[in-house]
Structure formats: structure tokens, C-alpha cells
Specification:
Layout: E1 2-3, H1 8-22, E2 29-30, E3 32-33, H2 35-38, H3 42-54, E4 58-59, H4 76-89, E5 98-99, E6 104-106, E7 110-113, E8 120-123, E9 131-133, E10 139-146, E11 153-160, E12 165-167
Parallel strand pairs: 1-3, 2-4
Antiparallel strand pairs: 5-7, 6-9, 7-8, 9-12, 10-11
Helix pairs in contact: 1-3, 3-4
């Protein structure tokens, strides 16, 4: 996918459209978004990586005039941010999840969920607040929270009655 986004949320919308058009026939990879050409702001680029992943696609960080270049040219902080996306999603059933932003409540910005709402990922670019989903199956959930700046993971569990639920951050 190539997209000329102006913000992480714009990239998210563009990737959502591409994933919808793919209709499961092929996987979408965001490979040439122009936002990394416009800014080197770490927060914006980190939010871009998460926006793409939460839209159901893989993403590549391309800089230097559109060239990926040797991995050692990627700034350490940005390399760590991309690694945090991988670190988090390898702990999830990512391939069984689909974008479901309409389910976002509380502080949730983007949602990935499976069809029966027994597994989901909630994302917010704002730290510290509760995250929610408007439709969940009843049960006990293993929660994994990630500080997306530091990459620190926290684990908890929560029993929920189903339906709309909110999860408070640990600590």
C-alpha cells in the first residue's frame, strides 16, 4: 500500500480502506507512506506504526528519500519503537483479529477484535486512561498493557460480565 497521509489517524483510515478492499484475499503492507518523509518526530512516527498495525496491516518504516537502507541507519529510538510493536503483537492472536474501531469506548482510539469478541486489542495514543470496548464476551481476560514509549509490559486479569467493559491501567 502506498498512502500520502498527513497524520497517523489519516494513515489508519487509509489502511482500513485497503484492508477492507482486500477482503481477506491478500494481506496489506503499508510500505510507502509519505509521513516519515515529512517528519522525524518520534511520537508521530511511533503513533504511525501503531495506527497501521491497529488497522490490520504490517508496516515498514521508510526514510532517506524512500529507501529502506541498512537497518543500522534507523535511529535507535525509532528502531526500539518498531520493536515494541512487534513485541506486543507477537503475544496476540493478531491474524485472528480484524479492525473494529466502532467498538471503541472510554479512551480507546483503535480496536482489533475477533468475531466472537473473546480476544481484542485496544489502543490509545494517550497514556494513563481507561480503555474500553462496547461488545465483549463474558469471561476472564488476560490483560497485557504496554507503555508504548518504554516498551514495558504489565500483566493483569479481569473477569467481565460481557457487553461494554472498561479496563483501568495497572498501577
Amino acid at each position: 500500500q502506498q498512502h500520502n497521509s498527513t497524520s497517523p489517524s489519516d494513515a489508519h483510515a487509509g489502511v482500513l480502506a485497503a484492508v477492507s478492499n482486500a477482503a481477506g484475499r491478500y494481506h496489506v503492507t503499508m510500505a510507502e507512506d509519505n509521513l516519515p518523509q515529512q517528519t522525524s518526530d518520534r511520537t508521530t512516527l511511533r503513533q504511525l506504526a501503531w495506527a497501521v498495525a491497529m488497522a490490520g496491516a504490517y508496516g515498514l518504516t521508510i526514510r532517506e528519500g524512500g529507501q529502506v537502507g541498512p537497518i543500522e541507519l534507523l535511529p535507535d529510538a525509532l528502531f526500539a519503537d518498531c520493536g515494541n510493536v512487534v513485541k506486543f503483537f507477537t503475544q496476540t492472536p493478531y491474524r485472528a483479529l480484524a479492525p473494529a474501531d466502532a467498538l471503541a469506548t472510554a479512551g480507546s482510539q483503535y480496536v482489533l477484535a475477533n468475531a466472537n469478541r473473546t480476544a481484542f486489542v485496544l489502543y490509545s495514543s494517550s497514556a494513563g486512561g481507561s480503555l474500553g470496548i462496547s461488545q465483549s464476551a463474558p469471561g476472564t481476560y488476560d490483560l497485557v498493557w504496554m507503555d508504548i514509549v518504554s516498551g514495558v509490559l504489565s500483566a493483569a486479569s479481569a473477569s467481565v460480565p460481557g457487553g461494554a467493559v472498561r479496563f483501568a491501567p495497572p498501577g
